[in-house]
Write a structure and sequence with these properties.
The chain is α/β, with parallel strands linked by helices and 410 residues long. It has twelve helices and 19 strands. The strands form four sheets. The chain has a seven-stranded mixed beta sheet. Strands 6-5-4-16-18-19 form a six-stranded parallel beta sheet. A four-stranded parallel beta sheet has the order 9-8-12-14, with helices on both faces. It is globular, with a radius of gyration of 21 Å.
């Protein structure tokens, strides 16, 4: 039986991340640098692996940073806010949506991933936003693939049939509502009688991760329908302890759903190279009836939704398809206290990185220690930096105090 799991390891330098390989029948789908050992300077990393799968292929990461950048007359920005780290902006339930709209206003195209704009029943991303799942977004930043926005996708919807029939019916109703309200093209809804299982857990550093058992059942469904869809929306139960859920709504911290959701969508994107996003299902009518009172605005959307699915359907409706090659982004914006393959790829390929001083619940590594980056105090300042880059204005000319230009007499 196939599963998606997380393993940990230690490397000697950040550049060694690109040489982290899969083990045996396991295929790497996500790599995160978690912290630096202050005594040895070794780097602790975690790797998400898809095990025992006949779908997809493994590509050596060391071959993914060699492609030359391709630019055109459009100014593109990538906004990356990794899930499972508790970022104060974009780390919860669509609370990065207004930030994404700001960046979309200062560029021609904004490339970002679902958890930034997904807010359950809300997704207010702009028309010039490219909704790209994290695994695909990483490959795009590496220069391995291109992206092309279609007029519309055929969105296959897969529903966990083990859930309370009330919520299975609700998911079907949401799809039909999307069809009549904005014209969603859904060729089929598949209700899985024997679904895979998703369990949320935590890494040693406190990052939200998880384990997925029986994912081969889902992959088989997608393989048999290959060619009949352009994007995949999945809604399924996620096993989270009651005390963890209640603590999150009452006191905050790291969103417990995001980590295992990213493991699922990374696996699907790896195997089929299609846009993909996941919405958790309501666990029970008892949970639906819980009253959490007035919660933090960053996760308020989760307390008012029944299915959490509308945001996913809207994002996938026009999510970009994968093509062989396309123009690259002109800069990448990300929290300063995180590091992964996209950061290293942007650095290696000469894509300017804007590192934002945003608070993360879990973040033991400073990307500025390993890559050249333009530092910003917050996302408002970062948007100004993006605007300056687009306008061809030197960032140094806007800082105060400003140093005199270096003069060398030969």
């Amino acid at each position: 039986m196939s599963k998606v799991i997380e393993r940990s390891g230690i490397i000697y330098s950040m550049s060694d991340l690109m040489h982290v390989d899969s083990r045996g029948s396991e295929k790497s789908i996500r790599i995160v640098a978690e912290k630096t050992d202050p005594d040895t300077n070794h780097i602790h990393y975690s790797i998400n692996c898809l095990s025992k799968s006949d779908f997809g292929s493994y590509t050596d990461l060391s071959d993914m940073f060699n492609s030359k950048r391709k630019l055109d007359d459009k100014f593109r920005v990538a906004l990356l806010i990794p899930t499972g780290l508790g970022a104060s902006v974009g780390g919860h339930a669509g609370d990065g949506g207004s930030t994404a709209r700001l960046f979309a206003s200062v560029c021609d195209e904004l490339v970002t991933h679902p958890n930034v704009v997904n807010g359950c029943d809300f997704n207010e991303m702009t028309d010039n936003t490219m909704y790209v799942e994290g695994y695909t977004l990483s490959r795009y930043i590496m220069g391995q693939i291109g992206l092309q926005k279609p007029s519309q996708n055929r969105v296959l919807v897969v529903v966990d049939g083990s859930a309370d029939p009330v919520y299975v019916t609700a998911a079907i109703n949401v799809v039909n509502a999307a069809r009549v309200s904005y014209g969603l093209n859904c060729p089929e809804i598949v209700v899985m009688k024997e679904p895979f299982t998703m369990t949320s857990t935590w890494s040693e550093e406190g990052r939200a991760v998880g384990e997925i058992d029986g994912i081969d059942r889902l992959l088989t469904i997608l393989d048999r329908r290959h060619g009949s869809y352009d994007a995949v929306a999945i809604t399924s139960l996620t096993h989270i302890p009651e005390e963890v859920r209640n603590h999150y709504y009452a006191k905050g911290g790291v969103n417990p759903w995001g980590g295992v959701e990213s493991m699922l969508t990374h696996a699907v994107s790896h195997c089929f190279s299609v846009p993909c996003a996941h919405a958790p299902m309501m666990e029970s009518q008892e949970v639906e009836n819980l009253d959490f009172g007035v919660v933090d605005p960053r996760w308020a959307s989760e307390t008012v939704s029944l299915t959490y699915l509308p945001c996913v359907l809207k994002g996938l409706n026009k999510a970009p398809r994968i093509i062989e090659s396309s123009s690259d982004v002109d800069c990448m914006v990300m929290p300063r206290r995180c590091f992964g393959i996209p950061t290293l790829a942007a650095h290696k390929r000469g894509i300017p990185i804007i590192a934002v001083e945003d608070k993360l619940e879990v973040g033991g590594i400073d990307c500025c220690d390993y890559v050249d980056a333009i530092r910003a105090k917050n996302y408002l300042e970062a948007a100004g930096i993006v605007s300056a880059l687009r306008s061809g204005i030197s960032i140094e000319s806007l800082r105060r105090p400003i140093k005199s230009v270096k003069v060398e007499r030969c």
